[in-house]
Amino acid sequence: MRILLIEDDKEAAAYLCKALREAGHMADHAADGDTGAVMAGEGGYDVLVVDRMLPRRDGLSIIEDLRKRGDQTPALILSALGQVDDRVTGLRAGGDDYLPKPYAFSELLARVEALARRRKPGEAETLYRVGDLELDRLRHTVARAGKPVPLQPREFRLLEYLMKHAGQVVTRTMLLENVWDYHFDPQTNVIDVHVSRLRSKIDKGFGEPLLHTVRGAGYMIRVGAR
Amino acid sequence: MSALGRVVRTTAFKLSAIYFAVFSVFAIVFILYISYSTNVVLAERLRDTIAGEIRELTEVGRSGGLRAIVNAIEERSTQPGASLYLITDMNGRILAGNVSDVPEQLLERSGSGAITVPYQRYSEDKTEHLAMVQVLRLPGGFRMLVGRDLGERDQFRAIIGRALAWAVALMIGLALVSWFFVSRRVLKRIDSVTATSRRIMAGDLTGRLEVTGTGDEFDRLADSLNAMLERIELLLQGLKDVSDNIAHDLKTPLTRLRNRVETALNGEPSSDGYRAALETTIEESDRLIQTFNALLMIARVEAGSPDGALSDVEIGTIINDVVELYEPVAEENGMTIRVGQVDPIKLRISRELLGQALANLIDNAIKYAAPLPCGQSRPITVVVSAVREGSHLVVKVTDNGIGIAAADRQRVLQRFVRLEQSRSQPGSGLGLSLAAAVARLHHGTIELGDANPGLLVTLRLPLPPP
Fold first, then answer.
1. Global pTM?
2. Are B437 and B298 within 8 A, CB to CB?
3. How many CB atoms lie within 10 A of CB A102?
């Protein structure tokens, strides 16, 4: 997919562009707010990655302008301000996700891919299917190989989020944000324990494991090894 | 600034000047009022006296005729302290009396009102005096004048004038005295405040203002200034502690990180070795970032800007969420965590921050409640409850683990303080400080107590009046 990165730190931008290309994406770079606004306005990008504090022009205003013109290209805001109220202003300005600096590249990549996915049609799917695992969003049921798997409500939401992003890396913070709706630092590996519980319910006793741990990044639900 | 200028600029001088002006005006007004009133009263009395004499003389004339009046006047004129009398015939010749010179037109004037005129007496000194007189026409063209000297009134005026002079002199004296006392007593204390604050500004933060114990305004001022100094000293101490802590708790892992990379570089070049070194480097820097974020968050919360908009939240929802989040971890650590009594209470808080605070408390309980000392064995349970107690919401996180010694309970709320037994566990030592900061932000308190056995953390938040 095509990604536009608006970031004034040259070294960080070069590293990000290289890493995004290695991950199989096309990445363009704008080094200041004005250039960024022009490039974003031309369209054709799947995701925008916008630094909040830019020379000449504030990152949030670029997104605000796009939204005013009806451009709904998903935008991920990068910011050194990581506090919750900064996140709130960022999202209010039309950003779709917010990532405080410093971040791990795996986190950024996972979020960018999740954002691009969100845009694709068929979002209102009622049935998620990965291999022989099925999740019915309307009836709130999960079955593996035709056998019903009873889940707690939170486990259901966890699996739902993972399956919605099947084939994509989902990080721990993404899970905490989207499944629990908290943005704080849980200090302990709370998410890991929830995932391993879920895994024991959907993978244990069935042939091929579907819920994989992606080292140094997070989790992914998919069929077969990568 | 000249010496005089300095004196004039002192508060004591200004105060004395104001006192002087105020009291002088007061005294002058008072004395003028008295002199005016007495004037009026005296004139009234003179008029009465004159009218009385005229009445008596007319009485005499009615029974004995003009001759009797002349006789009576001659007799009265010679008495000491006599009034003024004069009686003339139709040609203006003086028949009797003790007045030698009065204005000529005076006798032509008729009417009953008394007027003030200059006059001279016989015999005595030839100076002119003032008198209040009344002229009466008698039958046959005769005229009679009766009057009283005004000397009495003038004497009284003189007395009042002297009183005024004395009063002003006294005012000046009192103003000087008050200046002296104000400058001696009051300004001395203000000067001592100035001196003390100079000393404090120079760096001696232990300096305090003198309190005399009289309970006057200066004592109250000194008391509150001292309280302020106390707070400043505490804050500065806190700042110093924090920077010391940052130096230690951030520099230590940074040094460790650097050493590890250096060791990897100096060792055998192998991609496995490099990989391992880089992976630990990332882990270590992630931990550093975590600590850094927590520090920033505490600073931000303590500066009093609530993160995210406050919203009306049901406390039970937060508790259920966080307990549910930690439940698997607790189970993995062989503990049970459950929600105790939770009253249905909605209050205006930052959901994120309170969630974080609660998460920190539960995380602490899970990490540090065990291991129990040798010889003890019981299943560890963590209970979170929230009940209304009067005007407060009281959230309790209770465990039945090893607890914290009473002496350490206050200390662990400080930043980076980690007790000996917790050093083996991962953590930044900031969890409780952040919880405490969140409590303060919501105008609440946090308190560590004994759950007998175990630790009881009480978070007390004020509820809005119903």
1. 0.64
2. yes
3. 15
